[in-house]
Specification:
By secondary structure, the protein is mainly alpha-helical. It folds into two domains: 1-30; 42-109, no CATH class. It is 77% helix and 0% strand. α4 (70-85) packs antiparallel against α5. It is extended, with a radius of gyration of 20 Å. The chain starts with a helix and ends with a helix.
Length: 111
């Protein structure tokens, strides 16, 4: 590892801290309206959706909404499991199991 990698990491950490700290310091001293606090509860699901949906719907770089897409099938099954069980560990374990099983079955079918 050359000197540029640690410098790059330190620079990214500094920029991230410099951008976020003033907002966090201000918010900690100001009482936000309840409407804003309620709206902020939707931020984590929105960010996760923005990350997960493209990875699931476009695993090869183009939209693939078919039964030949194991990412999509496992994603839908995992969403249903999460909704039904409300258990993160079981959702992850069963979702990965469904993905691996479905991917191996597609491979055997030659799709």
């Amino acid at each position: 590892m050359s000197i540029s990698e640690p410098l790059l990491i330190a620079g990214m950490a500094t920029v991230t801290f410099a951008v976020r700290y003033p907002v966090l310091a201000l918010v900690s001293r100001v009482k936000l309206p309840q409407v804003i606090l309620d709206a902020m509860k939707f931020i984590p699901p929105a960010v996760l959706t923005a990350i997960i949906v493209p990875a699931v719907a476009m695993p090869q770089g183009q939209v693939d909404i078919s039964l030949n897409n194991p990412y999509l099938v496992a994603g839908i099954a995992s969403a249903a499991l999460a909704w039904r069980t409300r258990d993160l560990l079981w959702t992850i374990l069963l979702g990965m199991g469904i993905f691996l099983l479905y991917k191996s079955l597609i491979g055997m079918w030659g799709a």
